[in-house]
């Protein structure tokens, strides 16, 4: 009798639990070593709050595959609870009428007070929070294997002229200078850093934020394109199609000396047990020390009917913005917290530098959105500009002048 009672009690508790436990399906594309470690922290915290985590991971750096998968799900009326959506495309999804509000959580927790406006503005649709930010990635980094540079007696470059001297010295010493992944989003990631370094902040803003035709097709852009194409002889024959994290592995394993990539690459170095300042260096891409291309990851919430699912979304929103999550996630991800009220003492020198530079560039005007990572253009425009950059990189017969005209035409895509 006693056992039966206990048994019944256990069953009813389990039932109550299963009614309460919300299943939270989250779409992301964090599948590389460092990314997966960072994503695992979110799953752990959500499960700790009694939610059931349903992982909707779609591999493919930069998230293009993930966005295709998301469209299919939303169009069929079956969206996930949340998806990793960033920048202006949050507004595009808002316009579709499919996003749900997390404004009550944001108000209760005072998000407006702990997020800089450059972050919080993007998270709101018609004044209401519909997305929660998790980090700030810096894109204009150059990752360096110092041992290989030493072998070639080459200097860590701070200007483009120095970069090409270093690359030539490495090549002469039989060392692969540049680890490169030839995919449209990666081409544009590198191109964007070249544009910032060669053209400067005002040029960058005019070209990629204001989409000014004369700037996109003008002489500075031609110089940017020529500089970008000069990188190609320093890449290897197998670069086409290579995933970014495999390129990072080349720097980690001493197969190549440098890579241009955002600081999600740092997540790979750390996951491989490498120490910044010793095994690898993070330096601003040539000519960009006073600028910061920001890329903010965030999760937008979809409108769901089920009350337990909505509770799960609110838990997710609260978790994403919690100081504990923002710290542990970003220690693994390579980025810095989106909240500006957190201590940075657990972060390494790259993270600390990023946080200092983020604040300094915000104050002095060098803070620019990474268009290659969805922070500046509408998605259709961005796709067209990607294509122009990639076509130029791959077609050795195309002149920089023609490519500049193509860029200006692509930027008109709506
Ligand atoms: C970026 C994204 C990062 C990282 C990277 C590689 O666009 O913001 O979080 O995942 O792509 O996939």
Describe what is shown at a glance.
It is built from 19 helices and 13 strands. It is an alpha/beta fold and 414 residues long. It has two domains: 169 residues, D-Maltodextrin-Binding Protein, domain 2; 214 residues, Periplasmic binding protein-like II (D-Maltodextrin-Binding Protein, domain 2, 3-Layer(aba) Sandwich).
Helical amount among residues, as a percent range? 40-55%
The CATH superfamily name of the largest domain is Periplasmic binding protein-like II
Terminal CA distance reads 71 Å
What composes the largest sheet? 5 strands, mixed
Number of helices in the DSSP assignment = 19
Overall strand count: 13
Signal peptide: 1-21
Keywords: Signal, Transport
Protein name: Probable sugar-binding periplasmic protein
Main location: periplasm
Key terms:
2 domains, 414 residues, 53% helix, Probable sugar-binding periplasmic protein, D-Maltodextrin-Binding Protein, domain 2, 11% strand, five-stranded mixed β-sheet, binds beta-D-galactopyranose, disordered N terminus, Bact_solute-bd_prot1, SBP, globular
Kindly describe this structure.
- It is a single chain.
- The chain is of the alpha/beta class and 414 residues long.
- It has 2 domains: 169 residues, 3-Layer(aba) Sandwich (D-Maltodextrin-Binding Protein, domain 2); 214 residues, D-Maltodextrin-Binding Protein, domain 2.
- It is 53% helix and 11% strand.
- It is built from 19 helices and 13 strands.
- The strands form 4 sheets. The protein has a 5-stranded mixed β-sheet, with helices on both faces.
- Strand 4 and strand 5 form a beta hairpin.
- Helix 2 packs antiparallel against helix 16 and helix 18 runs antiparallel to helix 19.
- The radius of gyration is 23 Å and the shape is globular.
- The structure holds beta-D-galactopyranose (GAL).
- The site of beta-D-galactopyranose has 12 residues, from loops.
- The site of beta-D-galactopyranose (GAL) has 12 residues, from loops.
């Amino acid at each position: 009798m006693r056992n039966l009672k206990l048994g019944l009690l256990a069953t009813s508790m389990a039932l109550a639990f299963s009614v309460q436990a919300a299943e939270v399906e989250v779409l992301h594309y964090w599948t590389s070593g460092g990314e997966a470690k960072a994503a695992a922290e979110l799953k752990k915290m959500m499960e700790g709050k009694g939610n059931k985590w349903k992982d909707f991971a779609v591999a493919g750096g930069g998230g293009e595959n993930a966005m295709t998968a998301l469209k299919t799900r939303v169009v069929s009326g079956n969206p996930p609870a949340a998806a990793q959506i960033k920048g202006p495309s949050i507004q595009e999804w808002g316009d579709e009428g499919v996003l749900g509000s997390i404004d009550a959580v944001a108000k209760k927790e005072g998000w407006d007070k702990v997020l800089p406006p450059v972050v919080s503005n993007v998270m709101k649709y018609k004044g209401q929070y519909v997305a929660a930010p998790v980090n700030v990635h810096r894109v204009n980094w150059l990752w360096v294997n110092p041992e290989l540079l030493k072998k070639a007696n080459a200097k860590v470059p701070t200007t483009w002229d120095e970069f090409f001297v270093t690359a030539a010295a490495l090549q002469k010493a039989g060392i692969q200078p540049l680890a490169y992944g030839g995919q449209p989003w990666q081409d544009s990631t590198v191109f964007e850093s070249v544009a910032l370094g060669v053209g400067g902040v005002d040029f960058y803003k005019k070209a990629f934020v204001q989409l000014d035709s004369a700037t996109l097709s003008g002489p500075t852009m031609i110089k940017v394109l020529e500089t970008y194409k000069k990188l190609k002889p320093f890449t290897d024959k197998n670069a086409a199609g290579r995933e970014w994290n495999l390129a990072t592995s080349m720097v980690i394993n001493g197969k190549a000396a440098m890579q241009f990539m955002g600081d999600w690459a740092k997540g790979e170095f750390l996951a491989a047990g490498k120490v910044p300042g010793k095994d690898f260096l993070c330096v601003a891409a040539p000519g960009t020390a006073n600028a910061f291309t920001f890329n903010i990851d965030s999760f937008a919430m979809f409108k769901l009917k089920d009350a337990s699912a909505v509770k799960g979304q609110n838990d997710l929103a609260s978790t994403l913005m919690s100081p504990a999550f923002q710290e542990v996630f970003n220690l693994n991800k390579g980025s810095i917290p989106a909240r500006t009220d957190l201590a940075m003492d657990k972060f390494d020198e790259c993270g600390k530098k990023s946080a200092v530079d983020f604040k300094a560039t915000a104050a002095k005007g060098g803070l620019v959105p990474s268009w290659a990572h969805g922070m500046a253009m509408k998605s259709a425009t961005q796709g067209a500009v990607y294509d122009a950059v990639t076509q130029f990189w791959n077609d050795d017969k195309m002149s920089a002048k023609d490519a500049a005209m193509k860029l200006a035409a692509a930027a008109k895509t709506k």
